[in-house]
Amino acid sequence: MKELKVQPIKDGTVIDHITPGNALKVVKILGITEKQPDSIISIAMNVVGKRGKKDIVKIENRELDPKEVDKIALIAPNATINIIRNYEVAEKHRVSVPDEVVGIVKCPNPNCISNTREPIETKFIVKSRNPLKIKCYYCEREVEDISSQIM
Ligand SMILES: Nc1ncnc2c1ncn2[C@@H]1O[C@H](COP(=O)(O)OP(=O)(O)OP(=O)(O)O)[C@@H](O)[C@H]1O
Ligand SMILES: [Mg+2]
Ligand SMILES: [Zn+2]
After folding, report:
1. Nearest ligand atom owner, CA of 6
2. At residue 72, what are phi and psi to the nearest 5 degrees?
3. How far apart are CA 114 and CA 139, in angstroms?
4. Which terminus of the chain has a smaller tally of CB atoms within 10 A, N or C?
5. Which ligand is nearest the CA of 82, by number?
6. Which domains does the chain possess?
């Protein structure tokens, strides 16, 4: 029997290997308080695993949509998304940052066309991955604090 750091869940999602300290940002991305007032979540922070410290977020009875997974990749590049069905890990996916980040980050430049003309979707080009650096496709502004600009 494997040791679990928090209570096992029957069905849902475990977001594992979150960059230590970032679990609350992950919960914010999932919008639990506003959108899902009934969803049960457990958070473990600074858990010591085989590969060092990590945070873990478990959500019962919910699977994530691709946009949520892309947002998580921006703040927790090593995270794994484990889908739990009937107490077992049924699927495991590593998150990945795409070459172009579309529609999930707001440009910090208030004069950027993506902020002034409503129907234009935001778009950023990935300049480096470690550390993650993204630059607006329209105005070339680099995003200093990516997590604060996630939509
Ligand atoms: N039924 C469950 N309820 C809650 N959490 C679970 C359940 N089953 C597995 N987990 C958690 O999901 C994560 C992935 O489980 P898994 O058994 O794949 O671990 P692992 O082999 O250490 O995987 P990895 O190599 O990705 O770290 C772990 O954090 C584990 O504690
Ligand atoms: Mg593990
Ligand atoms: Zn811009």
Report:
1. 1
2. -60, -40
3. 9
4. N
5. 1
6. 12-94 (3.30.70.140), 100-149 (2.30.30.20)
Q: Which ligand 1 atom is nearest residue 14's CA?
A: 12
> Which residue, judged by its Cα, is nearest atom 5 of ligand 1?
8
From 1, 5, 14, the mutation candidate for ligand 1 (largest count of ligand atoms within 8 A of CB) is 14
pLDDT tens digits along 79-137: 999 999 999 999 999 999 999 999 999 999 999 999 997 789 999 999 999 899 999 99
Q: Give the Cα separation of 144 and 125 in Å (integer).
A: 14
Residue 87, CA distances (Å) to 7, 13, 110 in order? 11, 11, 47
Nearest CA to ligand 1 atom 14: 82
Q: How far is CA 46 from CA 12, 19, 28, 39, 69, in A?
A: 22, 9, 18, 23, 21
For the chain, the average pLDDT equals: 92
Q: What is the DSSP string of 87-102?
A: TEEEEEEE----SEEE
Nearest to 101 by CA among 151, 57, 144: 151
What span, in angstroms and rounded, lies between the C-alpha atoms of 35 and 2? 33
